[in-house]
């Protein structure tokens, strides 16, 4: 007897759809979420992809277009899910919607990872500075969970500058978790994790360390606090991720110290990428 074929009813799904597996809100301006990872997606820790949602239907044609933005992947290359760390902009075309996603919802993810905040774009060195502001912490959340980061460097200085103390939580918790989670300790090694020097600063709310990191570099306070020599192109490397203005200011400081900007095609002493902003 012939087997009756079950007619699988086509469920409408988004193109390049991935499913949300967790969402955590940090402040009224910041949240992080995780989604399923396409089996075929390979990326290098520190890279970014385009993600988004379908936009509102066109008022006349009813046609919907995907609303996509560049987002750094905050999870490491070995993770079986993908993590993202995002700002919420009340009138932002994407983030005003994205901030409402729930577990089980779908987002669009274009599986074409790119970016310059990768080990391949840096020349060998001994001390790695990771300079971030706001959601610019995201690519470093990936790189801090990547074993290669610790194989390549003896010391990793992770700076994060935000307006308020609460905005540091995602980064602070991530680093605390690295040092206390047994799986992370086993993967990265206790001695390697001891290489991390976490340096959080705030600019508007009172905290133990205040000031823009650019100011703390210029006046030497960062180096005095860490007990390390001033920036030296022979040994120091840097990765930078923040707002456009921040990136430009840090770039000038790196170049003043004699560090040259690198790229995938030509590794250098520092690399820069703009954080997703709105
Ligand atoms: P500030 O409060 O002095 O503007 P934002 O939330 O606007 O993205 O800023 C994140 C953090 O980055 C804030 O602490 C902000 O300091 C700091 N910041 C903004 N622009 C620069 C810059 N050009 N150089 C250094 N830090 C900056």
TrEMBL record:
<dbReference type="InterPro" id="IPR039261">
    <property type="entry name" value="FNR_nucleotide-bd"/>
</dbReference>
<dbReference type="InterPro" id="IPR033892">
    <property type="entry name" value="FNR_bac"/>
</dbReference>
<keyword id="KW-0274">FAD</keyword>
<dbReference type="GO" id="GO:0042167">
    <property type="term" value="P:heme catabolic process"/>
</dbReference>
<feature type="domain" description="FAD-binding FR-type">
    <location>
        <begin position="13"/>
        <end position="120"/>
    </location>
</feature>
<comment type="similarity">
    <text>Belongs to the ferredoxin--NADP reductase type 1 family.</text>
</comment>
<dbReference type="InterPro" id="IPR051930">
    <property type="entry name" value="FNR_type-1"/>
</dbReference>
<keyword id="KW-0521">NADP</keyword>
<dbReference type="InterPro" id="IPR017927">
    <property type="entry name" value="FAD-bd_FR_type"/>
</dbReference>
<dbReference type="GO" id="GO:0004324">
    <property type="term" value="F:ferredoxin-NADP+ reductase activity"/>
</dbReference>
<keyword id="KW-0285">Flavoprotein</keyword>
<protein>
    <recommendedName>
        <fullName>ferredoxin--NADP(+) reductase</fullName>
        <ecNumber>1.18.1.2</ecNumber>
    </recommendedName>
</protein>
<dbReference type="InterPro" id="IPR017938">
    <property type="entry name" value="Riboflavin_synthase-like_b-brl"/>
</dbReference>
<dbReference type="GO" id="GO:0034599">
    <property type="term" value="P:cellular response to oxidative stress"/>
</dbReference>
<keyword id="KW-0560">Oxidoreductase</keyword>
